[in-house]
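On to our target:
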Amino acid sequence: IGVVYVASDYTGRKRAEQALRGSEHRYRTLFDANPLPMWVNDFEPLQFVAVNDAAVNHYGYSRDEFLAMKITDIRQQGDASLHMKKDGTRFHVEISSFEFMLHGSRMRLVIAHDVTERRLSEQRLRESEARYRLLFERNLAGVLVQHLLNPGLGAAGVAIHPAPTPGVALGPHAIVSAFPVLWNPLTGGQI
């Protein structure tokens, strides 16, 4: 009668499994705790596979509602940068995404950054600049503008519109002599 003794050291495999679980936990935490809306959708038919809490909070859909939907349910048709919340509110997003394979299927991880406020601010700035430009160009009394951030520019930091004589550009000395009442208090008469 013989005895066969077989021994295997599973320590390496156990460590690898433990490291893998730790890595999965870290990445899952990065996904779930990210303050920006994120989701994973399959490439075709664009079904949501996973969504983070920020997406649930921002879009207003429950996790189960999201997982029953397709990405096309939240996008404006023809404009992938215009999304819609559950309550019908439309907002602009910048999308960052990348594709990867999971269990033989093409997937896409998406981060959606709401840029609606930034776009509104940019639009308000453009409108303000247009109003200022219109005021400056149509002001019949004339406008004197000195470069206040760098007064050392002297008369070189000054613009006059319209010129006192149409079609005549004023150099620094001409500005001082044409407008001493305005120029002298600003610079003490120095050019």
User: Anything to note?
Assistant: Strands lie at 38-42, 48-51, 75-76, 79-84, 90-102, 105-114, 143-146, 158-161.
